[in-house]
Specification:
9 helices, three-stranded parallel sheet, binds glutamic acid, binds zinc ion, alpha/beta, 10 strands, three-stranded antiparallel sheet, 303 residues, Rossmann fold
């Protein structure tokens, strides 16, 4: 199966989870995705990834938008995943009718005891035809190609890292599309949204590299177009030495230092901004950054 790629006006997005403040790592993802489409005169929107309402921190979405505004980002619109549930359920029933998903009753403990490759799944329930009654807590998993399949790997061209390949069984396995607690899983929500909103290029951190194959597979199974994907390296936090992924608990961005933080991010992204730019107003820094953006200057290291 191959993913369809659309060529039209660039549309990008930044998709924070409202579970904590934006930090320097988030600013890298927001900046790279923003410049990538702004340079093509495209559209950019902010998607608040709040399907997992149990993890949402109240007020966090507003704080995120305020921070983005203080840093001078201009978005075309904001969308909340919590308001898109019916689209995810439609996608699930389509996958169901195509026999692309199956019920799984395994608990984490059973999986951990059973497979040395935990948290990879061992496809235990794949052929058991289990049913799921309303009162039961069961997950739905997607059938990914088997190792014996003609195409046991998914290949794609990463806009930053080049040729990539994901082995379904070794790297991903039959991942969850609906969790046993009833929540829609990230891969399903994200791939449906990226397709439905006509995203042409997803630029995000390398911590999400392994998400691309599952998300493109879902889009292909639903007959939807896929964006292209680029994964930027992760910044290392100066104090802790930890890679700044979405999940890291790094200090919140300080809007009073917006200019120098943006300058630092542009430098990290290989854009080589002239030194005097750091003293300029945000609008001038953005103007320079949009006019000079070169995605191929981003380093391709393996972080
Ligand atoms: N909300 C997800 C995260 O913060 C979005 C990931 C993505 O950009 O696809 O990790
Ligand atoms: Zn199972």
């Amino acid at each position: 199966m191959k993913s369809k790629v659309l060529h039209k006006n660039a549309v990008g997005r930044f998709a924070p989870s409202p579970t904590g403040d934006l930090h320097l790592g988030s600013l890298v993802a927001a900046t790279a995705s923003y410049l990538n489409v702004k340079q093509q005169d495209g559209k950019w929107f902010v998607r608040i990834d709040d399907v997992d309402t149990a993890r949402v921190v109240s007020g966090c979405d507003t704080q995120i938008l305020k921070t983005l505004e203080a840093f001078g980002f201009e978005w075309d619109f904001v969308v909340y995943q919590s308001q898109r549930t019916e689209h995810y359920h439609q996608a699930l029933s389509q996958l169901h009718s195509n026999d692309a998903v199956y019920t799984c009753h395994c608990t984490r403990k059973q999986l951990r005891d059973r497979t040395p490759f935990f948290p990879l799944y061992d496809r235990h329930c794949r052929d058991l035809q289990l049913s799921c009654h309303l009162e039961q807590q069961c997950a739905l998993r997607l059938k990914t190609p088997l190792a014996s399949d003609a195409q046991p790997c998914w290949r794609w061209q990463d806009l930053i890292r080049g040729d990539q390949q994901t082995h379904w069984q070794r790297d991903v396995d039959d991942f969850i599309v609906k969790r046993s607690d009833g929540f829609i899983a990230y891969h399903l929500a994200c791939s449906v949204d990226d397709a439905d909103f006509g995203i042409t290029e997803v630029i995000r951190g390398a911590d999400l590299l392994s998400a691309t194959a599952p998300q493109q597979l879902i889009q292909a199974l639903l007959g939807k177009a896929s964006p292209t994907y680029g994964h930027h390296p992760l910044m290392i936090d100066r104090n802790s030495g930890v890679k700044l992924s979405k999940a890291s608990a790094a200090p919140a961005l300080n809007a009073a230092m917006a200019g120098s933080l943006l300058f630092e991010v542009l430098t990290f992204l290989g854009q080589n901004p002239p030194e005097e730019l750091v003293f300029e107003p945000m609008s001038t820094i953005w103007q320079w950054a949009i006019a000079h953006w070169q995605r191929d200057k981003i380093k391709k290291d393996e972080t």
